[in-house]
Structure formats: C-alpha cells, structure tokens
Design a protein that fits this description.
Number of helices: 4
Order of helices and strands: HHEEHEEEEEHEEEEEEE
Mean pLDDT: 86
Strand order of the largest sheet: 5-4-8-9-13-12
Strand content: 15-25%
Helix content: 10-25%
Number of domains: 1
Length: about 260
C-alpha cells in the first residue's frame, strides 16, 4: 500500500514538473509584441514610411518593397499650364501664361504623360561618399511631378531657362516631361510655404522656403542645401532639404544620402 501511495506521489510530481517545464519553454519563445523583434520593428518602420510616402497624392501607385518605397507617377501636373496647349488635356488644363515674368516665352515642348518609377530608401542615412545629382529627375514632389536640379541642359545655369517657366514655376523638357527646378508655387500655395513638398531620391524630405515663420536662406543650410531637426512628419528629427529663392534652389553639392533609382 505504501508503495502505491509513493508511486502516485512521484507520478503527480513528474506531471507538475512537466507542466512547469512547458510553461517555461513558452516564456522563452520569440515574442511578436510590437518593438520586441527586428521583424516587427521593420514592419512598423515600413508602415510609417508608407503613410508618409502616400502624401505624394499625385502618384499612381505607392508601396513598400524591402527597404524601399516604390512610387509610380505619370508626371502630369494637377494644375493648369500654357504647356497643356495642343494636348489631349488642353480643354481642361490649358491656361495662358498669367505670371509676373515679363520675359516669359513659351518653349516648343508640350506636356506628355510619362511612366516613371522612383525607388527611394525608406530609412535614409548619410552617405559615406556623396554623389552629384544627375540631369533629369532627382526627386518627386507631392503632385507626382519630378524635381530637377539647378542646371539646364549641358549643366548650364538656369539664367535663360527660367524665362520658360510657367506661372507655377514648371516646364516640360523635349520628351514632354514636366518638372520643377525651383519652388513649385502651386504646391506652396495649396499646402503652405513651410510644408513637406516631396522627397529626393536619397529618401530625405524636401520642405518649403519657410520654417517657423522665417524665410530660409541659403546661409541657413549646409552645402547640400539642408539641415537636421524635428519636423511635423518626423518628430524625432531628420535631415531635410529646403527650397529657397536663390541658386541652388532645391539641392546643393549633391545627395546627402545614398540615392535610390528612377526608371522609365
């Protein structure tokens, strides 16, 4: 009888130990609670980045692929322009020049639809070795229109080319790709001169010519035409570019970060 009681006791103890061991094993399993694993952190960052890049309302498609935001656009400005003349959009979007430049001259190019795919880093960092911005698109604005750098064809200054900018400071190149070299006044009128206006190819944001009620001058910025601090979209702080009213306008000595790609 004593042996039976002992056997039952041992059996019960073993069961209790097994249950305890199973509980401990569960405690040691990887957790999926937010912020406790690299996968979850990456997902959280991607989600946040997607929300920010979706501010590009002119894009036809925006999604995250790995460490990049993929942004597709047809590049058509959502505002009127004299460069819509003689196009399929002329009825709705043609508007004769009504700006303030007395030297304005309509160039022979006309706006055409594009098929542009921007691949932009969602977690931009300062490049170890910076690179110059190319001719052609260097970034994308909120309405899906590309940003170009401070040079005309053959790296010439914009001295003469500005006389072809429409009333919203944009114009098309020979293939009909409309773009901004300088402040996109349609966006700064609609969103505010201190607003986020887009992103360069390195993933760093571009803001307007005002900050905390003060006009930003080139002397307020570094050689790449930016500086670092908190913004509305990035409360923890980020390097960002500012558009100013003097050369180089949007970007200075090149990309601050490592540029993504653009394909057509």
């Amino acid at each position: 009888m004593k042996k039976s009681i002992i056997s039952v006791a041992v059996f019960v103890v073993n069961i209790m130990l097994l249950v305890s061991a199973c509980g401990n094993e569960s405690d040691l399993s990887p957790t999926t609670t937010s912020g406790t694993s690299s996968t979850t952190t990456t997902t959280a960052n991607a989600t946040t980045s997607l929300e920010i890049f979706k501010k590009i309302y002119g894009a036809t498609e925006v999604y995250i692929e790995g460490n990049y935001a993929i942004i597709k656009t047809n590049g058509l400005p959502d505002h009127k322009s004299p460069y819509y003349k003689d196009t399929q959009w002329a009825t709705a979007k043609y508007e004769a020049y009504n700006g303030t430049n007395t030297k304005f001259a309509l160039n022979p190019n006309r706006i055409s639809s594009q098929s542009l795919v921007f691949k932009i880093p969602i977690n931009p960092t300062k490049a170890n070795s910076t690179s110059a911005t190319p001719l052609g698109p260097i970034g994308i604005s909120l309405n899906g229109v590309p940003f170009f750098n401070q040079y005309a064809a053959m790296n010439a200054p914009l001295t003469n080319e500005v006389n072809g900018f429409d009333q919203y400071n944009g114009h098309p190149q020979q293939q009909g790709q409309y773009h901004y070299h300088v402040e996109p006044t349609y966006l700064t009128t609609q969103k505010g001169k201190d607003a986020l206006l887009g992103f360069l190819l390195d993933g760093f944001p571009v803001y307007g010519p005002l900050e905390k009620g003060k006009t930003v001058n080139n002397s307020d910025l570094d050689g790449y035409h930016g500086h670092s601090h908190a913004t509305v979209e990035y409360p923890n702080g980020i390097y960002h570019y500012h558009i100013t009213d003097a050369d180089p306008y949007i970007n200075g000595n090149g990309f601050y970060g490592t540029a993504g790609t653009i394909s057509k």
